[in-house]
Amino acid sequence: MNDMRIAERDVDSMESKITARKVQVFYGQNHALKDVDVDILDKTVTAFIGPSGCGKSTFLRCLNRMNDTIDGCSVKGSIKLDSEDIYDPKVDPVQLRAKVGMVFQKPNPFPKSIYDNVAYGPKIHGLTRNKAELDEVVETSLRKAALWNEAKDRLQSPGTGLSGGQQQRLCIARAIATSPEVLLMDEPCSALDPIATAQVEELIDELRSQFSVVIVTHSMQQAARVSQRTAFFHLGNLVEYGETGQIFTNPKDPRTESYITGRIG
Amino acid sequence: MSVSLISLIVVILAVAGFILARRRALAHSGGDARKLHSLPQYHGMTGVLFTVVPAFLVMILWLLVQPIVFENRITAMIPEATAADDATRTLVMADVRRLAAGLDQAVSQGKLREADIEGMRADLTDVRGRLAEVGVALGSNVQQSVFQAAKAYRLIRNTSSLLMTGVVLATAVAGFFYAMSRISVDYRARNVSERFMIGLLALASLVAVLTTFGIVFSLVFETWHFFTLYPPFDFFFGTVWSPRFGGGSTLGILPLIWGTLYVSFIALLVAVPIGLMSAIYLSEYASKRVRTVVKPLIEILAGIPTIVYGLFALITVGPLLRDYFAMPLGLGNSSSSVMTAGLVMGIMVIPFVSSLSDDIINAVPQSMRDGSLAVGATQSETIRKVVLPAALPGVVGAILLAASRAIGETMIVVLGAGAAAKLSLNPFEAMTTITVKIVSQLTGDTEFASAETLVAFALGLSLFVITLCLNVFALYIVRKYREQYE
Ligand SMILES: Nc1ncnc2c1ncn2[C@@H]1O[C@H](COP(=O)(O)OP(=O)(O)OP(=O)(O)O)[C@@H](O)[C@H]1O
Ligand SMILES: [Mg+2]
User: Fold this and answer.
1) What is the mean pLDDT of residues A153-165?
2) What does the alpha-carbon distance between residue A23 and residue A43 come to, in Å, rounded to a whole number?
3) What's the ipTM?
4) Exposed/middle/buried for residue B389 (C-beta within 10 Å: 0-12, 13-18, 19+)
5) Is residue A8 part of a domain?
6) In terms of pTM, does the model score above 0.95?
7) C-alpha–C-alpha distance, residues A18 and A40, integer Å
8) Which ligand 1 atom is at minimum distance from the Cα of A61?
9) Atom of ligand 1 nearest to the CA of A25
């Protein structure tokens, strides 16, 4: 993999934002995640890689308790955000999700106008005091998601009328409009062309200065380009987690090596 | 030959067609079905179809056209019927038919011979007396012209029946041989029977459409008739409804439209919030167990006969509302009221709203909800701001369906709201609706051609137009929003 240029590795902070210990996830009888231990650092991009069905999305959904909406899904173990257990009964999942935003694997814009899609979160949380501020939030979010130029003349037309890639960027804009502390992105670039992909990667790098970002990707190049930490999942196990450069150049586990060199997956 | 006998012969021919066509196809292929383009049973099928379908079509057409031709021929023979209006023509035709049937009976009992009838004249023979002997009673003495018509009627009828038998059987046989002649190894029997099937299906839908048109046409026709007897302006803008059997009625539709809309409005006021909220509860909050129990329970409401609801309105709700609301509030002392009928009708249409809305809300993709929850919205915010707007077109459809149901309801109104047409705002007063008045106008003992009876058709047409408008409106809403959401 010659085109794999590995990004600057200096992590701005070594503080953990999210600490997961012995996380188990069951879908009914199906044991989808087994004993996952991860420390996700603050102000860092963490990439989750692994073959299809290995549990990347499942783990991502644990981090903002989106698994609560799935019937028969149970999560065991502890996941701490800023040293507070997010599965504690005291924690309000609604509050949690305001802090931990998410972009889904499949774009899911609301059947509303582009503007309303982006303004949805800020309106619900009362983040802006007036229309002008809201307009500004919408504009900066759309700009960051690299959609502003395409959408600025049609803010009032329905978000569902956009192309698949545009819809995905709209969902990114929607997620960052509430300024979450952690942003979970499930294959955000799978429907994007190379230019939009580059823009989103730029955005991810930019977001790193304020948030921590967790990104699931099937593109090894992308993981290498944007992330500082990489976790490799296989069959529900976290096989290897470490500094991205080390994972790609000098993997410890033979499974990791065969995956990144294209032998399993 | 009678129709059933002809049908039987055609069917037997068809069965033979199936067996022979199948055998012939197999014979052509030398016993190896794989060489055929279509399987042997498809060849058999073409045998059946070519024999049966054209023959039956001819027969149906014949039976439909026959009475019209007869009537034209016969009425032309009777001087007083040709010039007169529809009603006398129908009467005369009935006489002719009865007389012809009497003659048939006399012949079959051996009291008369065909040759005798030929020479008989009504002004010379006592036809009435002769027929009375065989047990056919006629209302009055037979006129010569009618008698001649009856004779002619028998003649055409017999020829027509003979001709029909010939033509239908000939068609069947021709179809049979045509089917046989076409069979070969390469014959696309499968495609041919497929096309026949498409034709039959299309014909079935055509029948449904034509029936609808027929209903509307007859409504329009009778309404037109009504408007020649009663001024349309007075009908559409009259505020008084007081039919008097025997003439001099005032037939203004406004009080009835008012009553209809008022009752339906109250019904929707009950049904929409309750139905919608229970739909939301069932689809968004209730556990699977609760859902599987509660949903069918609500749907039972739709299965209760409306007369039972009517009884409930009459015996329980009406007196209750009168004693605890109307009387203390000084709003009247009638136990039948718009409120009673509206409330009960509202309960009746709850399942229409809830069941449909529930299905529609369930059809909103989970990813929509996930998207909303993931930005930190609560469940009820998600429902209000994302799920309901997305489900709106369907919900509107459900509500309008409930509305059409309420507008067309009769039994609950009769027992709950009474039968007095009134224009009033007081919901505790008795009023009535269009459907109730249609029933009472048609069950009265007046002649059919009077304005008092014909008004029922005008009312029916108005009702039809109102519900049609509602449906068109619903379609419009659904279309308009669906484009946006999918
Ligand atoms: N809603 C669900 N109900 C039941 N089982 C599920 C559900 N979602 C995922 N699973 C199971 O959990 C396992 C992990 O799925 P997950 O979606 O996390 O995979 P993934 O790593 O994201 O794969 P991909 O790269 O294809 O998106 C799979 O075996 C899958 O069948
Ligand atoms: Mg996934």
Assistant:
1) 89
2) 23
3) 0.88
4) buried
5) no
6) no
7) 5
8) 18
9) 12
pLDDT digits (tens, 9 = 90+) for A29-59: 999 999 999 999 989 999 999 999 999 999 9
User: Kind of pairing, strands A45-49 and A229-234?
Assistant: parallel
Confidence of residue B250 (pLDDT cuts 50, 70, 90): confident
Query: Does residue A34 sit within a domain?
Result: yes
All residues of chain B having their beta carbon less than 8 Å from the beta carbon of residue A120 are 372, 375, 377, 385
Return the closest-CA partner of residue A184 out of A211, A214, A223. A214
Q: What is the DSSP track for B6-70? A: HHHHHHHHHHHHHHHHHHHHHHHTTT-GGGSSS-HHHHHHHHHHHHHHHHHHHHHHHHHHHHHHH
pLDDT at A1 (0 to 100): 41
CATH number at residue A84: 3.40.50.300
> Would you state the pLDDT for residue B121?
76
Mean pLDDT of B308-314: 92
User: Which burial class, exposed, middle or buried, applies to B400 when counting CB atoms under 10 A from its CB (0-12, 13-18, 19+)?
Assistant: buried
Q: Per-residue pLDDT averaged across A55-75, rounded? A: 90
Contact B375 A66 (CB under 8 A): no
Q: pLDDT at residue B392 above 90?
A: no
Q: Compute the CA torsion angle A190, A195, A197, A199 (nearest 10 deg).
A: -150
Residues in chain A closer than 8 A to B373 (CB atoms): 66, 69, 94, 97
Domain housing A133? 16-260
Taking 60 as the threshold, does the pLDDT of residue B465 lie above it?
Answer: yes
* Mean pLDDT along residues A113-121: 94
Architecture of domain B241-485: Orthogonal Bundle (1.10)
% residues pLDDT > 70 (chain B): 96
Residue nearest to atom 18 of ligand 1 (CA): A55
Residues 98-127 on A with a CB inside 8 Å of B are: 98-99, 101-102, 104, 106, 108-112, 120-121, 124-125
In chain B, where the domains are located? 3-187, 191-228, 241-485
Contacts of B371 in chain A (CB under 8 A): 104, 108-110, 171, 174
**All residues at 6 or more sequence positions from A156 whose CB lies less than 8 Å from its CB, including other chains:** A113, A114, A115
Look at ligand 1, atom 2, and give the residue with the nearest C-alpha.
A27
Look at chain A and report how many structural domains it folds into: 1
